[in-house]
C-alpha cells in the first residue's frame, strides 16, 4: 500500500488524547510513522498505546492492537477499565485485537519470522489499512529468537512493512538499566519517535514520568515530565507557560489583618504567592484562614486545601478566632478540600489540586501545609509547576510550610519553595519569663517596602491582631513582659501628665498673680502720672501767677517814676 504524503506539521501528527503529551510533542505522535514506547515494567507503555489508539478511533479511524503478553479478553477489559467511552467501538469492531502470544505448549524450531502475524494484521480490515497498529510487548516475541541477527532481521521486516502502510505504528518494548545492545537498540534506531516512560519509587511511593527521547523532523519538549495513572488513563502535568506571559497586577489584597497589611505596605499583590513558615502551633493555618475569609468577604471565589485537618474541623477551629467559613461555603464562594491521611506522591497531590482549581475556578488558593509533599527534588518540582500554573491563571496563592525545628530558630523551610514565593512571612515562638508567645516577621516581599520590625501575633475570640513588640537592651519583649512594659510606660506617661498638670496650674497661678500685680502697678503708675501732670500744672500756674504779679508791680513802679520827674523835688 502506498504511503501517504506529508502535509503541514500540524496535520502530520496524530493526537494521543493525552493533552500534556500532545503539548510536549507539538501535536502528538508522527502520523504514518513508527513510534516506540519504551520503559521498565509497570511504567505505562501499554496504557499509552491503548489511549493513543482509542483517541484516534474515536476521531473516526480504526485500529489493530496486537498483544504479545495479554489475551484478547484481557486487552478488551483494559480498554473498558478507563474512561475512554470505547465500548461501542469495540463492539463495532473498529478496534480489532490480535492475539500475538505463543502458546505455552508450542516449541520453536527452525527458522521463524513474523510474516504470518503481519498477514493477520492485514486481514483485520480487508477494505483498507487501519489508521493505527499497535504491537504491544513486541520484545516478548523477539526474545524467543536465538540470535541478535534474527531479531534485527525481523525488526527490519516490521520496518519495511510499516513503510508500505499509511498507518501510524506503535511499538512497546521493555528497557532495563545497563541492558546490553541488541534488538532494543535497533528498535530505537528505526523508530521516528521514541517515548521513554519511567517508573521509580521514592519514600515508598511510585512515581512515573515521560520524556521524548527522539522525534525526527519535529521540535519537542526536552525535559522529563511526571504523569499519573487515573481513571482517564495517563494524565501528564501541564507544562507551564513562559514567565513573560504571566499577568502582572499592581492591585493590593488584604490578608485580613489590618496591621499586617500595613507592614506589607498595603497588602500583597494580586496573583502573587505567599509563604507562611513556622513551627507547629505558630498560627500558620489561622493566618491562612484569615486570608481566605478576607477574599470571600470581597465576593471572590477561594479554594482551601488542607492536609492535616478535615473541612469540618477547619470550620470549627476557625470559628474560635472569629473566622466564619460556613456562610461562604454555603454560598459556593469557598471550597474546602481535605486531604488528611492521604498517602500519595507529590505529583498525585499536585494533580488533584490542579483538578480542584479547574473545577472551582478560584481567584485565591490556600495550601496548608505545602511541606507535606515537598521532601525531595521531584516533589519540589511538583510545587513549582503548581505555582507556575496559578501565576499563569492570575490566582493569588498562600501556602504554609512547617519548619524542622520546634523552637522556630531557623527560617529554612522544609518545602524549599521560599525562593519561588513573592512574599515570605515567618512565624516563631519567643519564650520569656515562663511564657511562649508568637512572633511575626516579614522575611521578604517583592516590590514592597515592607516592615523589618518584629510583631507579636495575638489570637483571641475576637479575632487576630498584631501588637508592636518592645525592645529593651537588645531583647524583644512579648506577652507579660510586653504588658508590664506597656503598663510601666502608661504609668510613667500618666505621672508625667500629672506633673505637667501641676506645673501648668502653678504657672497659671503665678501668671494670675503677676497679672494682678501688673494691674496694681499700672494703676499706681497712672496715678503717679496724674500726680506728675498735676504738679506740673500747679508749678506752671505758680510761675504764671508770679510773672503776672511781677508785671503788675513793674507797671506800678513805672507809673510812679513818671509822676515825680516833671516837678523835680516835691
Automatic annotation (TrEMBL):
InterPro entries on file: AAA+_ATPase, Circadian_clock_KaiC-rel, KaiC, KaiC-like_dom, KaiC_dom, P-loop_NTPase
Record's keyword terms, sorted: Hydrolase, Kinase, Phosphoprotein, Repeat, Transferase
- Basic and acidic residues compositional bias, start-end: 529-554
Q: Which domain of life is it from?
A: Bacteria
State the EC number(s).
Answer: 2.7.11.1
Q: Which SMART domains does this chain map to? A: AAA (SM00382)
Q: Where is the KaiC domain?
A: 12-250, 251-480
Q: Name one Pfam family in it.
A: ATPase
Q: Which GO terms describe its molecular function?
A: ATP binding; hydrolase activity; protein serine/threonine kinase activity
Residues of the region (Disordered) are: 529-570
Show the NCBIfam families listed in the entry. PRK09302.1 (NF006799)
The protein in question is named non-specific serine/threonine protein kinase
| UniProt lineage | Bacteria, Pseudomonadati, Pseudomonadota, Alphaproteobacteria, Hyphomicrobiales
Amino acid at each position: 500500500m502506498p504511503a501517504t504524503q506529508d502535509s503541514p506539521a500540524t496535520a502530520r501528527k496524530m493526537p494521543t488524547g493525552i493533552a500534556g503529551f500532545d503539548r510536549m510533542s507539538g501535536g502528538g505522535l508522527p502520523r504514518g510513522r513508527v513510534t516506540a514506547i519504551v520503559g521498565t515494567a509497570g511504567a505505562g507503555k501499554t496504557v499509552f498505546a491503548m489511549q493513543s489508539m482509542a483517541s484516534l478511533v474515536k476521531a473516526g479511524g480504526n485500529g489493530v492492537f496486537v498483544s504479545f503478553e495479554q489475551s484478547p479478553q484481557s486487552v478488551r477489559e483494559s480498554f473498558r477499565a478507563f474512561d475512554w467511552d470505547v465500548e461501542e467501538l469495540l463492539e463495532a469492531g473498529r478496534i480489532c485485537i490480535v492475539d500475538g502470544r505463543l502458546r505455552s505448549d508450542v516449541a520453536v524450531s527452525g527458522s521463524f519470522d513474523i510474516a504470518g502475524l503481519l498477514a493477520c494484521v492485514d486481514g483485520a480490515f480487508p477494505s483498507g489499512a487501519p489508521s493505527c497498529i499497535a504491537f504491544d510487548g513486541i520484545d516478548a516475541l523477539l526474545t524467543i529468537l536465538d540470535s541478535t541477527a534474527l531479531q534485527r532481521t525481523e525488526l527490519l521486516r516490521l520496518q519495511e512493512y510499516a513503510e508500505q502502510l499509511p498507518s501510524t505504528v506503535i511499538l512497546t518494548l521493555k528497557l532495563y538499566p545497563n541492558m546490553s545492545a541488541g534488538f532494543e537498540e535497533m528498535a530505537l534506531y528505526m523508530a521516528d519517535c521514541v517515548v521513554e516512560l519511567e517508573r521509580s519509587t521514592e519514600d515508598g511511593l511510585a512515581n512515573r514520568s515521560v520524556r521524548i527521547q527522539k522525534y525526527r523532523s519535529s521540535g519537542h519538549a526536552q525535559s522529563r515530565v511526571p504523569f499519573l495513572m487515573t481513571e482517564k488513563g495517563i494524565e501528564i502535568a501541564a507544562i507551564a507557560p513562559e514567565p513573560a506571559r504571566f499577568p502582572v497586577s499592581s492591585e493590593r489584597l488584604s490578608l485580613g489583618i489590618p496591621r499586617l497589611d500595613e507592614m506589607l505596605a498595603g497588602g500583597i499583590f494580586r496573583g502573587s504567592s505567599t509563604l507562611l513558615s513556622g513551627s507547629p502551633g505558630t498560627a500558620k493555618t489561622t493566618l491562612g484562614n484569615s486570608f481566605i475569609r478576607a477574599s470571600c468577604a470581597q465576593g471572590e471565589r477561594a479554594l482551601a486545601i488542607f492536609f492535616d485537618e478535615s473541612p469540618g474541623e477547619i470550620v470549627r477551629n476557625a470559628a474560635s478566632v472569629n473566622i466564619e467559613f460556613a456562610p461562604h461555603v454555603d454560598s459556593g464562594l469557598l471550597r474546602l478540600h481535605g486531604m488528611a491521611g492521604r498517602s500519595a506522591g507529590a505529583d498525585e497531590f499536585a494533580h488533584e489540586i490542579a483538578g480542584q482549581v479547574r473545577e472551582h475556578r478560584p481567584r485565591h488558593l490556600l495550601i496548608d501545609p505545602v511541606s507535606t509533599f515537598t521532601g525531595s527534588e521531584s516533589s519540589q518540582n511538583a510545587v513549582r509547576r503548581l505555582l507556575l500554573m496559578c501565576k499563569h491563571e492570575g490566582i493569588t496563592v498562600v501556602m504554609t510550610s512547617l519548619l524542622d525545628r520546634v523552637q522556630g530558630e531557623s527560617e529554612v523551610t522544609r518545602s524549599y519553595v521560599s525562593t519561588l514565593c513573592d512574599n515570605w512571612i515567618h512565624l516563631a515562638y519567643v519564650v520569656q519569663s515562663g511564657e511562649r508567645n508568637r512572633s511575626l516577621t516579614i522575611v521578604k516581599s517583592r516590590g514592597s517596602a515592607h516592615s523589618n520590625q518584629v510583631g507579636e501575633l495575638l489570637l483571641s475570640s475576637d479575632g487576630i491582631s498584631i501588637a508592636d513588640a518592645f525592645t529593651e537592651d537588645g531583647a524583644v519583649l512579648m506577652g507579660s513582659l510586653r504588658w508590664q512594659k506597656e503598663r510601666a510606660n502608661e504609668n510613667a506617661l500618666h505621672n508625667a501628665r500629672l506633673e505637667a498638670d501641676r506645673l501648668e496650674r502653678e504657672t497659671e497661678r503665678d501668671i494670675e498673680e503677676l497679672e494682678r500685680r501688673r494691674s496694681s502697678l499700672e494703676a499706681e503708675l497712672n496715678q503717679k502720672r496724674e500726680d506728675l501732670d498735676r504738679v506740673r500744672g500747679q508749678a506752671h500756674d505758680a510761675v504764671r501767677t508770679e510773672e503776672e504779679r511781677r508785671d503788675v508791680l513793674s507797671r506800678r513802679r513805672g507809673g510812679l517814676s513818671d509822676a515825680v520827674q516833671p516837678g523835680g523835688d516835691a
